Amino acid sequence: MRGVRPDIALLEQNGITGVAMPRLGDPSVIPLWFGEGDVVTPEFIRAAAKKALDDGDTFYVNTRGTIELRAAIRDYTNNLYGTSIDVERVSVPGSSMLGVTIAAQMALNKGDDALVVSPHWPNIETTYAVTGANVITVRQRETPSGWQLTADEIIEVATPKTRSIFVNSPCNPTGWVMPREEQEKLLAFCRENDVLLIADEVYHRHFYQADAAPSFIEIAEEEDPVVIVNGFSKAWAMTGWRLGWVITPKSQGTHWAIMSECFNTGSTVFAQRAGITALEQGERTVHALKQQYQQGRDLLIQKLGQHPHIDLCAPEGAFYAFPRIKGIQSSRTFAEQLLAEADVGVAPGYTFGAGNDEYIRICFALGQDRLSEGLDRIVRFIDRQ
Ligand SMILES: Cc1ncc(COP(=O)(O)O)c(C=O)c1O
């Protein structure tokens, strides 16, 4: 292909979009495929963005984010986790996804190994592949008490060429949450071997046993090789705003400024003003959304948990379930037929890494009525097979 690097030409669109594209926006489809619910960003957050526009917030600002937003992120983090991180460790390059991309670009050379805890969100693998690194994965295990993986199992798969380890906890798509003592072991390994740990914590407020999931920020020293990625999309219902942040070693600050400059020169300025409002006034929103997701999770367990053709590990966090549909040959075909015959959109398992072609991902963030109808349609469809 002219003008496209051969390795880029080989990349494929992720399977979620692949299934969804032909029916995107079709009101007859119950969409359980993407990682978002149906709640519009709350009014008080939207009002802050409108006010910022009316105040003339339309100019370039610091590429690492405005100091006001970075300070609000520092305060939010310190209040939530009882830490005392410095504002110099906070950058707002754009979306959380961009945070992962920049971290990967900074750490990896062509030919390095990049280790990803799997099943994993497909965009992560693509982002790593673009660096020229070899992506290697280590798969969580299904156990009677949920998805599990120890730090030792991750470390066992690491090679002398491994320069980065990606851990997404709570996990999209399984809902796995990495326990504190496993985090400590993995962090010690990364510290000793100078491996960059990219800790994707965008679902940090969607942990069903506590207010927030265990975070690497609670145990990392200031100069440990850890980049914590977080953002507004999930906890404040702001997926379309494309606003996220990273907490990095203090010494990386200038590099985040430089990398932000060459990606999108920082994030949208009036969205940043809304981000401050979300952090400072949004706790009730965060809790209300989590309550909705918790009800969604209970409903899903109730409707699918006992089905003879479905193996379901109850998710501990995030807002997805990743059930195995026993006996299906292809998750893509299953998702496409479910869409065509029952008007429900789910994500096919194969796109979350090897070993997942008997699985589908169901997002349970939608309001109860539509979620309930969607789950009933899935059950009826499976019963007809
Ligand atoms: C694991 C994970 N990381 C990052 C992101 C990206 O978040 P954002 O919308 O802030 O870019 C998502 C979005 O679904 C995700 O599931």
What can you see in these coordinates?
The chain is of the alpha/beta class and 385 residues long. It folds into two domains: 6-41 and 284-384, Aspartate Aminotransferase, domain 1, CATH 3.90.1150; 58-281, 3-Layer(aba) Sandwich (Aspartate Aminotransferase, domain 2), CATH 3.40.640.10. The chain contains 13 helices and 16 strands. It has helices at residues 6-9, 15-20, 43-54, 67-81, 96-107, 122-130, 151-157, 180-193, 253-263, 269-281, 283-304, 331-342, 368-384; strands at residues 30-31, 90-94, 113-118, 134-139, 141-143, 146-148, 162-168, 196-200, 226-231, 244-247, 310-311, 320-321, 324-325, 344-345, 347-348, 360-363. The protein has a seven-stranded mixed beta sheet with strand order 2-10-9-8-7-3-4, sandwiched between helices. Strands 12-16-15 form a three-stranded antiparallel beta sheet. Strands 1-14 form a two-stranded parallel sheet. Helix 6 (122-130) links the parallel strand 3 and strand 4 (134-139). Helix 7 (151-157) runs parallel beside helix 8. The longest helix is centred in the last third of the chain and has 22 residues, at 283-304. The radius of gyration is 20 Å and the shape is globular. It starts with 5 loop residues before the first helix and ends with a helix. 49% of the residues are buried. It binds pyridoxal-5'-phosphate (PLP). The site of pyridoxal-5'-phosphate has 13 residues, from helix 5.
